[in-house]
Design brief:
single chain; five-stranded mixed sheet; 13 helices; 339 residues; D-Maltodextrin-Binding Protein, domain 2; disordered N terminus; alpha/beta
Length: 339
């Protein structure tokens, strides 16, 4: 009898310890979640490498209870398609830029205005100051804002040299379908842009339907668009804003104790990705140059002023239509710029 009690006293703590260490049947299913994430970034790109690192880190630190299912390379469609799939629950999360953000919360597009920022320090400052305000508005639209996500400085890539604003007037310029910012920008520059989904641009370049595109150098390289153009303008056209968003419905499915881990890992990964992409931009421009592209230097004097005046006109025309005038004024105040 004594031996029996000794055995029980030994086995009970062992049993309790094993219960704590090894989740019981049903635990992983009930308290785990896989976030379906979509991006236009192709496999092998820096973007996808960092997303795979994020997935690995989250799975490891959550002991497999939380992770991602990644749909890269536009396999889930362009941002409009992804947004539709998020709203019906087929996709949970994505990094949106341009059109996607505009269809959720148009006011954020103020950050995509042409020739608004002069350097990355200004970009970081404005994003930091406006983040909480935008996050509250995203929440009202059914999305949780998790982090800014670097898309990068946007440049023009063309078959003909662009040194002055008037040089654009005879070009067949692509604009992202449904994007009021690019449409108005190119209209002010004196051209009639051709709206297309991102997934249709390669075909349009190959058939010479268009001869001018825009995007971050890394994106132009990854998508192979550079093979159909001859020039890159070193003057940044704009900074493309990106936001890592997850639907409110999907966010609620994340086990509550893992929400801080999810938010912390995403923010950390996006910060690291931003720094890496900025480091790689110079190398990418060199690769594009070595690949045969001619780099058009920054314009100076009156030519540069003419490009900057495009900002003034576009910003004024879209205020009250795409974003409130108050948000634009707030951006100017942060940048200590007259308005």
């Amino acid at each position: 009898m004594k031996n029996k009690w000794v055995t029980i006293l030994v086995l009970v703590p062992v049993f309790l310890l094993s219960f704590l260490i090894f989740p019981q049947p049903g635990y992983s299913k009930k308290d785990s979640f896989r976030i379906k994430f979509a991006t236009l970034a192709p496999d092998g790109s820096t973007w996808m490498k960092y997303m795979r690192r994020l997935d690995k880190a989250v799975k490891k630190k959550s002991h497999g209870r939380l992770g991602f299912r990644l749909y890269g390379g536009g396999i889930a469609g362009d941002e409009s398609n992804v947004l539709r799939k998020i709203r019906i629950g087929q996709i949970h999360s994505a990094v949106f830029s341009g059109v996607g953000i505009g269809r959720i919360l148009p006011m954020v597009r103020v950050l995509d205005l042409p020739f608004l920022f002069r350097n990355t320090e200004e970009v970081d400052l404005v994003q930091k100051r406006l983040q909480d305000n935008f996050a509250q508005h995203f929440k009202k639209k059914g999305f949780e804002f998790i982090s800014w996500a670097e898309v990068g400085s946007v440049h023009l890539f063309s078959q003909k040299a662009i040194r002055k604003v008037k040089d654009l007037s005879h070009l067949k310029i692509w604009s992202w379908s449904g994007d009021p910012i690019s449409k108005e920008t190119f209209a002010v520059m004196g051209t009639n842009p051709i709206p297309l989904a991102v997934t249709d641009v390669t075909t349009a370049l190959n058939t010479k339907m268009i001869d001018t595109v825009y995007g971050p150098p890394l994106g132009i390289l990854a998508l192979q668009w550079y093979t159909n153009v001859k020039y890159m303008t070193l003057l940044p056209l704009a900074n493309a804003t990106g936001a890592f968003l997850i639907s409110a419905k999907a966010f609620k499915k994340i086990p509550p104790d893992l929400v801080p881990l999810f938010q912390r890992e995403v923010v950390s990964t996006m910060d690291s990705l931003t720094q890496e992409l900025r480091r790689q931009t110079g190398d990418t421009i060199k690769l594009l140059k070595d690949g045969g592209l001619t780099m058009l230097p920054m314009p100076t004097g009156k030519d540069l002023e003419e490009f900057y005046r495009v900002h003034d006109e576009v910003a004024k025309k879209l205020a009250g239509k795409v974003y409130p005038r108050e948000i634009l004024d707030q951006v100017y105040e942060i940048l200590n710029r007259p308005h």
